[in-house]
Task: inverse folding
């Protein structure tokens, strides 16, 4: 696949790519529609405080992690078209409630529920994988993610203008948020009819059970459990932060911790229920896959996307305080980290396609991230500003490229588990953000950059040890195992039986 191919919109797969990145763009636009309007909210609602907005910011990411896991399971069962459409329509409801909420409870709960919209990313990853061949998947996934992810930056640039110019008045921010929600719901309805789950004749490979990921060995079963615990357990950090802000009593926190523990136990039970019968029966050789590769990619997304979310939130203040810049100038410079996304992430996927070795590309990008953040850790006011900006752009290039390379590998690991693997890796990006942002409250910016650098190098080592070049990574078609064919035949028989009735 060539870069110029993205303009050939008459091709069904290119049309599907554009329809899907636009859907992702809109969901991220809605997800990040609060921060640009924060000052307007404070002026309009006299009982709101800055601490309230900080709490809303925490709620805005709280459910994204479990939502990505749940959505990943739904993808493998219902397919991305249905999941994406339903997600956009349903999530418009809490967005509208937040827009017109008049009590703290309404704003808090609606923002918490709306955080689930962050799971939209993995839906498009799955849809794109159904439309593109393994040899082209890197660039396609990178283009989808890079341009769709820009929705957050577009919200920051456009929403204040829409609120002030188009609507005006004290409630302008409400109508701006409501407008974004209505557009998302409308697009969700249209998306249902505008696209299919892959080209005509595509077989949607489904796992036996959607409640937990299948593994190939007893050792992989242990690894899956160990990697599942932090996905839910990290919510305990959010509970602790909310309690420290004074919005949750010790009793309330204890209840939340108990719920988190119960969910972890439930998920482990589901993993055991799905996998023990499969492993006792024995997994055919042609159906096995290395879970260690999934674990390695979990670590890469923790270290690259997690770092991006954390760094974007502190970079403007870092430039403002270190080089005595105005808030506007610092914000524009910090925005360069996000703008690089438009080119670097598709390029990461393209390089992954062209190099003929996805593992080597992944290793190269992760090493570049470690080096880039180490250089950022050395920055201080004695460095020329232009050099600091150059190092920031250099680092962002590797961060975004690594994100593209990660999802250039995932669809080829195990085709029928793409939704669950994408959901797990995507969730680890949010786990990384929560962990890094929590660490940031205890360290200086320079120490913070060095810590992120260390995280990238640890992931690099894990990739050396665990990441394997996926089977049929550059083929015209994805690998189909005997179990895939068996599941397909069972589905065909079930459909024939229902038709006969």
Result:
């Amino acid at each position: 696949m060539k870069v110029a191919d993205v303009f050939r919109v008459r091709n069904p797969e290119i049309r599907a790519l554009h329809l899907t990145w636009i859907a992702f763009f809109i969901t991220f636009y809605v997800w990040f529609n609060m921060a640009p309007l924060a000052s307007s909210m404070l002026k309009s609602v006299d009982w709101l405080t800055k601490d309230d907005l900080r709490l809303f910011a925490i709620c805005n990411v709280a459910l994204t992690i479990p939502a990505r896991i749940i959505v990943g399971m739904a993808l493998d069962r219902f397919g991305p078209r249905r999941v994406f459409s339903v997600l956009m329509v349903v999530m418009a409801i809490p967005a509208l409630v937040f827009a017109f909420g008049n009590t703290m409870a309404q704003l808090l709960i609606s923002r918490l529920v709306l955080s689930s919209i962050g799971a939209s990313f993995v839906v498009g990853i799955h849809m794109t994988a159904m439309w593109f061949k393994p040899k082209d998947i890197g660039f396609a996934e990178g283009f989808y993610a890079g341009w769709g992810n820009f929705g957050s930056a577009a919200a920051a640039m456009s929403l204040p203008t829409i609120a002030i110019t188009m609507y005006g008045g004290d409630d302008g921010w409400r109508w701006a948020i409501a407008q974004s929600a209505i557009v998302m719901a409308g697009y969700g309805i249209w998306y249902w009819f505008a696209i299919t789950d892959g080209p005509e004749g595509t077989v949607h490979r489904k796992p036996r059970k959607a409640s937990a990921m299948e593994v190939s060995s007893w050792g992989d079963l242990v690894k899956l459990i160990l990697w599942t615990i932090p996905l839910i357990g990290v919510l305990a950090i959010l509970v602790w932060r909310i309690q420290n802000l004074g919005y949750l009593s010790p009793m309330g926190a204890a209840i939340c911790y108990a719920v988190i523990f119960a969910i972890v136990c439930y998920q482990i039970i589901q993993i055991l229920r799905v996998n023990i019968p499969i492993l006792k029966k024995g997994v055919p050789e042609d159906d096995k896959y290395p879970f260690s590769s999934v674990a390695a990619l979990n670590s890469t997304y923790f270290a690259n996307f997690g770092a991006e979310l954390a760094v974007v939130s502190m970079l403007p203040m870092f430039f403002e305080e270190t080089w005595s810049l105005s808030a506007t100038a610092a914000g524009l410079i910090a925005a360069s980290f996000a703008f690089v996304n438009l080119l670097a992430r598709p390029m990461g996927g393209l390089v992954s396609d062209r190099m003929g070795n996805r593992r080597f590309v992944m290793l190269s990008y992760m090493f570049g991230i470690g080096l880039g953040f180490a250089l950022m850790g050395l920055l201080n006011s004695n460095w020329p500003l232009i050099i600091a900006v150059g190092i920031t752009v250099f680092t962002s290039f590797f961060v975004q490229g690594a994100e593209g390379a990660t999802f250039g590998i995932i669809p080829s690991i195990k085709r029928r588990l793409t939704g669950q693997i994408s959901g797990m890796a995507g969730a680890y990006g949010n786990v990384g953000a929560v962990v890094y942002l929590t660490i940031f409250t205890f360290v200086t910016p320079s120490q913070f950059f060095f810590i992120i650098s260390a995280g990238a190098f640890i992931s690099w080592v894990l990739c050396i040890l665990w990441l394997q070049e996926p089977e049929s990574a550059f083929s015209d078609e994805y690998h189909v195992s005997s179990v895939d064919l068996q599941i397909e035949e069972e589905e065909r028989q079930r459909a024939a039986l229902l038709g006969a009735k």
